[in-house]
Amino acid sequence: MEPGNITRISKFLLLGFSERPELQPLIFGLFLSMYLITVFGNLLILLAVSSDSHLHTPMYFFLANLSFVDICFTSTTVPKMLWNIQTQTKVITYEDCITQMNFFITFAGMDDFLLSVMAYDRFVAICHPLQYMVIMNPRLCGLLVLVSWVTSVLHSLSQTSMVLWLFFCTEVEIPHFFCELNQMILLACSDTFLDNLVMYFAAMLLAGGPLVGILYSYSKIVFSIRGISSAQGKYKAFSTCASHLSVVSLFYCASLGVYLSSAATQSSRSSATASVMYTVVTPMLNPFIYSLRNRDIKRALKRILGIQCYKNQSSKG
């Protein structure tokens, strides 16, 4: 690449999923529906946990944080894509792209850490039930969330700062619906060996670490459940983990599938389609997974919706 063709560009083009005009209304309607469901569902979880005193426990404290992060996670990518479809433009400025990537990495990291913290919470609840409230005290819960935020932000800043040193060819087209780190590195004209090395090392450390913690916690939980004599006791212990296990499986299978498939095929468009699973679908399904399998959440949601209905009837009267 000649030096004259390398410069600090001011904008990128997000190509999205398809360039066919007849598919744009379908894509817009589909993603708008999923985004509204995600925001509304997670807001209901937040409202249920904050309004019901029975849900002021460590498990639901972490769940409320996960719902907040899921709203932010989806909001970093989908609104921009919807705006581009509506205005029939593909442009995203260099500054907006870096900002979007920074927040995306932050909230993805927070999702990862919160799932690990929630696994530890279930480990303490099942394996050390008598010491649960002593171990999982409010100070420790707040500290775990704070450390997760600080680590995620620092990781995001370190990854984003690498991109600031890269040079891109003019008229850079991103075959994706948002500015993703690995896609940005692939499109750079400058040497990216060190960037790839740091990116994959950080991914193994900050994604693999929480995954190891989750696997360790659940291995201890399985051994503890096997020691319970009654079938009813085993079912009750496992049911408290079922929702979290479903979310963990969905998140990790989707995210690992994206990065493994992109590494194997180098197809950016297929990677963009696969990315929808962990960037949009997983945050949308989380409220349903937790509410459908949790009596306390369902009771709180029914009470909230019942109060709202009563208020509406009173105002009409």
UniProtKB/TrEMBL annotation:
Compartment(s) of residence: Membrane
Membrane spanning residue stretches: 26-47, 59-78, 98-120, 140-158, 197-216, 237-260, 272-292
G-protein coupled receptors family 1 profile domain mapped to chain residues: 41-290
Metal-binding found in the keyword field: no
GO molecular function term, any single one: olfactory receptor activity
Xref: InterPro entries: GPCR_Rhodpsn, GPCR_Rhodpsn_7TM, Olfact_rcpt
Membrane topology summary: Multi-pass membrane protein
One cellular component term from this protein's GO annotations in UniProt: membrane
CDD domains: 7tmA_OR7-like
Listed Pfam families: 7tm_4
UniProt keyword annotation of Nucleotide-binding present: no
UniProt keywords, alphabetically: G-protein coupled receptor, Membrane, Olfaction, Receptor, Sensory transduction, Transducer, Transmembrane, Transmembrane helix
SUPFAM superfamilies (UniProt xref): Family A G protein-coupled receptor-like
Highest taxon of source: Eukaryota
SMART domains: 7TM_GPCR_Srsx
Functional note: Putative odorant or sperm cell receptor.
Protein name stated in the entry: G-protein coupled receptors family 1 profile domain-containing protein
Organism: Panthera leo (Lion)
Lineage, top ranks: Eukaryota, Metazoa, Chordata, Craniata, Vertebrata
